[in-house]
Amino acid sequence: MNRSRRFWLWGVVVCYTGLIYATLSIVGQLRKFLVEKIGLRLFKRGETIYDAVYVLLALLGVYLIWYLWKSPSHRKVSNFISLLLIALIYWYFLQKIRFPVEKVHFLEYGLLSWFVFEALFLDIKDWRCYGWTLLIVYAISLGDETLQALLPNRVGEINDVLTNFYSALLGLALVGFILHPAIDFKKNVWSAEFGYGIMGLAVCTAIFIERVHGFGYRHWDRNIGVFRSSFTRTDLKTINEKLSQGSVVQVHQKKEYENEALRHLFQREYYLHNKFYYSMIDYHLYVDKSYNENELIEKYYPVFLKNQQNQPLKDWIQKIDPDLSQELIHSDWIWTQSFKDSLKAMFTSETVWESRVKGNLITQYKIQDLWFWTVLIIIFSFYLNRKIHDPADLS
């Protein structure tokens, strides 16, 4: 009986994780349809967003209230208060997330934590079940963001990994405070295997932050605005000079330079061509943002523009947004001065502009700080592993 149930529960975890991973490539198009094609205001009434995510959350709340009420052993005031507090915390996090699709993604990890917990609970009846659930869900979230970094229209961010982790914590809070599984509270969550799991995830997280999320620099240009880059301004100048002279540039530097330039180029065309609807028929274009992105590219990535002039612009944009690329048949890599002047006349600069490209880069800390704390976590985990010789005899 337990064997078939174990197979079924872990099958649910694997299939559900596969579903999360499989839908990553279409999230951008779905978000564009829901928010940028239909419009944010259709999801708003005043400042509160009313969409399907809140309906789902409300239905889940009604079900849990019914579940608590029908069971005499669960029909306690403390349980209803716990449910209310968890619901408020979920609402708080959902308010912080801008796009409805990303709200759904947040709820997905709360549900995933429940699936993983149920699968583990067949074999682990103490507090370690909570700990291993968090480690597994965190690892899945880390894989989620790594896959996003490999997609042309997505980015991987440690902030999203942590957000998914918070959702898992809330999901486990529902399990622990509302569903009340028979957990042995006398045993500690720590074990040698758990310590090795933390060490492994600490190293994976450090590699993710360094290689995927990235470190960089925040630049302010008084004539353009704020932008972020993996390079200093001196580095950008040097790379442009080497490329214009035909000198050798390190492969990874050239790749990162072209990636940044392409993303700024995409934002330039996206703001200029995409229709941002604020009602069913009315829309606007972000001409000011498009103009500033162009100014930034011309000043800091000029060789990229010059070297790509003989190729169709839509082929480059195709790598990020196939739909937008179809609108760029007559678009030019380098804008004429008269065209730039016509755009400049359409807006007035009232606030400091900030590019969203590479907006996730860590600019306040260094890589050495990251690995210092990683090594510290490993040493502390190793110390606990050495101190606890018999994981079965924890107290």
Note the main attributes of this structure:
395 residues, mainly alpha, 2 domains, two-stranded antiparallel ribbon, two-stranded antiparallel sheet, 64% helix, globular, disordered C terminus
Tally of contiguous helical segments: 16
The major pleated sheet works out as: 2 strands, antiparallel
Share in β-strands = under 5%
Roughly what is the average pLDDT, rounded to an integer?
A: 83
Helix content: 55-70%
Helices and strands: which structural class? mainly alpha
Number of strands: 6
Number of domains: 2
What order do the strands of the largest sheet run in, or round the barrel if closed? 1-2
What is the overall silhouette? globular
Rg computed from alpha carbons, rounded to a whole number of angstroms:
25 Å
Q: Calculate the terminal CA-CA distance, rounded to whole Å.
A: 31 Å
User: Element order, helices and strands?
Assistant: HHEEHHHHHHEEHHEEHHHHHH
- Runs with pLDDT <50, length 5+? 36-50, 390-395
Describe the structure in brief.
The chain has 395 residues and is mainly alpha-helical. It is built from 16 helices and six strands.
